UniProtKB/TrEMBL annotation:
<keyword id="KW-1133">Transmembrane helix</keyword>
<keyword id="KW-0012">Acyltransferase</keyword>
<dbReference type="Pfam" id="PF23270">
    <property type="entry name" value="HAD_RAM2_N"/>
</dbReference>
<feature type="signal peptide">
    <location>
        <begin position="1"/>
        <end position="20"/>
    </location>
</feature>
<feature type="domain" description="Phospholipid/glycerol acyltransferase">
    <location>
        <begin position="343"/>
        <end position="444"/>
    </location>
</feature>
<keyword id="KW-0812">Transmembrane</keyword>
<protein>
    <recommendedName>
        <fullName>Phospholipid/glycerol acyltransferase domain-containing protein</fullName>
    </recommendedName>
</protein>
<keyword id="KW-0472">Membrane</keyword>
<dbReference type="Pfam" id="PF01553">
    <property type="entry name" value="Acyltransferase"/>
</dbReference>
<feature type="transmembrane region" description="Helical">
    <location>
        <begin position="278"/>
        <end position="303"/>
    </location>
</feature>
<dbReference type="GO" id="GO:0016020">
    <property type="term" value="C:membrane"/>
</dbReference>
<feature type="transmembrane region" description="Helical">
    <location>
        <begin position="84"/>
        <end position="111"/>
    </location>
</feature>
<keyword id="KW-0732">Signal</keyword>
<keyword id="KW-0808">Transferase</keyword>
<dbReference type="GO" id="GO:0016746">
    <property type="term" value="F:acyltransferase activity"/>
</dbReference>
<dbReference type="InterPro" id="IPR002123">
    <property type="entry name" value="Plipid/glycerol_acylTrfase"/>
</dbReference>
<dbReference type="InterPro" id="IPR056462">
    <property type="entry name" value="HAD_RAM2/GPAT1-8"/>
</dbReference>
Length: 538
């Protein structure tokens, strides 16, 4: 019955809203565009704002003030919300949903703001699970919001003691970010209709939020101290109800980019963990380029993978470089130990391919120990991999045995980190070897991330190798002096912390005390363990 009602409401909306109203509005819009093309002087001229620029707002003595604003076009530098809907469609839905949203761009261009927003909401959210959207709003969207944050608008927002945001975009897309990163006390946005655990893609009975109406309902006769808005008429109505009103000009962003662009060190809260596959801001043009690249990218990934598995090291590097893989190696392999025991290579962890690229760079076979490696990754690995059990004594015995057989690679962070941070190092490796070689590893991608916390980890190498020009940086540091190891009377924790600092300094990263468990609890709501589902022996 509920499904039938959804279909009925959607049919009514398509017939009376999308088809009837949009035809008239599209014709008016095209007429305006033709007029602007024939009169280019009018296109550049802009109606002066009734309110001063946000750059003129004083930041002193605002601790007791109440500020209201919108996130779209005000707190964010980009005017369009399409890239964020694309992130929801691709990361929460599927590549098919993302393609459908991209194909709707010509239609979106002709629609007015309200209909455009309704269409993007329907394509992005229809059939999407509520828990998937919660994960995206927590683990994917904040990184892109922070990278697009308007510094001037944020500084005014941060100076106010109380902050309220009114927006027409779905509340579930922005509330997590505004609360956690910007300290916004209340977020009012458009509410989405859901049946059970799934969104229908339609708005709730209240429809799209109208900011000045929601403002009056929320504050009544009270006037907030500061209002921030864009140059749109709706925002002028909205912020005119405040004691002071300021607008964000597009020209300010273009002329003084340094005043509006927020550098990483100024982020209100550091982004150490984030999830999702897309490594770029998915504007319509960038997304079109991605879909055009994917067929060739899949072929390239298979070619690069097969070359790394079956070909000799030097030939694999040659063909990999020819196909676009950039490998930069610094340092040299230390002299062979006089003891029978192998060398322990301690690496920073960026992707599952770290041990493979180290082995290729050194031109010799290595053994890698890892936690929670998927069966697929283990099957396609060109080097020997051994799973650890998280039992300290058993894992220690396993690593001791492997070191007696040859050289060993370990990533003591226990999981990957995309940002310039190093997680806490496990100290187990320091108890097992006196000859330790730190290896600083970093990667760069332009299209797809080669790691995931909630997706299919078996596809991590494929996604990394699908990038047009994936880059690996491997720096082999000098062997740790014997007096700075456990053999020199130093505790294993001090050794682990020392090596973590050495790698952080080499890469320009920052050390943290966060662990694998912290990462997966934040991004995926679990401890990140790949369980080996084997039948118990009778």
């Amino acid at each position: 019955m509920a499904f039938a009602m959804v279909i009925l409401k959607f049919s009514n909306w398509v017939l009376y809203q999308l088809l009837a109203n949009s035809c008239y509005k599209a014709a008016s819009k095209m007429r305006n565009y033709c007029f602007l093309i024939s009169n280019p002087s009018l296109k550049s001229s802009q109606q002066p704002s009734l309110f001063p620029s946000v750059a003129k707002c004083s930041l002193e003595g605002r601790g007791s003030d109440t500020l209201v604003c919108d996130i779209q076009g005000t707190l964010l530098r980009s005017q369009s919300f399409f890239p964020y809907f694309m992130l929801v469609a691709f990361e929460g839905g599927s590549i098919v949903r993302a393609l459908a949203l991209l194909l709707s761009c010509p239609i979106l261009f002709l629609l007015d703001y309200e209909l455009k927003l309704r269409v993007m909401i329907f394509i992005s959210f229809c059939g999407l699970r509520l828990k998937d959207m919660e994960s995206i709003s927590r683990a994917v969207l904040p990184k892109f919001y922070l990278e697009n944050l308007n510094l001037q608008a944020y500084e005014v927002l941060a100076s106010a003691g109380s902050r309220v945001v009114f927006t027409s975009v779905p509340r579930v897309m922005v509330e997590e970010f505004l609360n956690e990163y910007l300290g916004v006390s209340n977020v009012l946005g458009s509410e989405l209709h859901a049946v059970g655990q799934y969104y229908t893609g339609l708005l709730s009975g209240s429809g799209l939020l109208v900011k000045h109406r929601a403002f009056r309902e929320y504050f009544g006769d009270k006037k907030p101290d500061i209002g921030l808005g864009s140059l749109s008429l709706h925002d002028h109505l909205f912020i005119s109800l405040c004691k002071e009103a300021y607008v964000v000009h597009k020209e300010d962003s273009k002329i003084s980019c340094t005043n509006t662009f927020m550098r990483r060190e100024k982020y209100p809260k550091p982004v150490i963990f984030h999830d999702g596959r897309l490594a770029f801001f998915p504007t319509p043009f960038a997304t079109l380029c991605m879909f055009m690249w994917i067929p060739l990218g899949i072929i390239l990934a298979i070619f690069r993978l097969l070359a790394g598995i079956y070909l000799p090291y030097k030939l694999a590097i040659l063909l990999g470089t020819w196909s676009g893989v950039h490998l930069e190696v610094r340092g040299s392999d230390p002299s062979r130990s006089i003891h029978k025991k192998g060398v322990l290579y301690v690496c920073s962890h960026r992707t599952l391919l770290d041990p493979v690229f180290l082995s290729t760079s050194l031109g010799k076979p290595l053994t890698a120990v890892t936690y929670s490696l998927s069966k697929m990754s283990e099957f396609i690995s060109p080097m020997k991999t051994v799973r650890l059990t998280r039992d300290r004594k058993q894992d220690g015995d396993t690593m001791q045995r492997l070191l007696s057989e040859g050289d060993l690679v370990v990533c003591p962070e226990g999981t990957t980190c995309r940002e310039p941070y190093l997680l806490r190092f496990s100290s187990l490796f320091a108890e097992l070897a006196d000859e330790i070689v730190p290896v600083a590893i970093n990667t760069h991608v332009s299209m797809f991330y080669g790691t995931t916390a909630s997706g299919l980890k078996c596809l991590d190498p494929i996604f990394f190798l699908m990038n047009p020009r994936p880059s690996y940086y491997v720096e082999i540091l000098p062997m740790v002096p014997r007096e700075l190891t456990c053999a020199g009377g130093i505790s294993s924790f001090e050794v682990a912390n020392y090596i973590q600092r050495q790698l952080a300094d080499a890469l320009g990263f920052e050390c943290t005390t966060l662990t694998r468990r912290d990462k997966y609890m934040m991004l995926a709501g679990n401890e990140g363990v790949v369980h080996d589902h084997k039948r118990p022996k009778p």
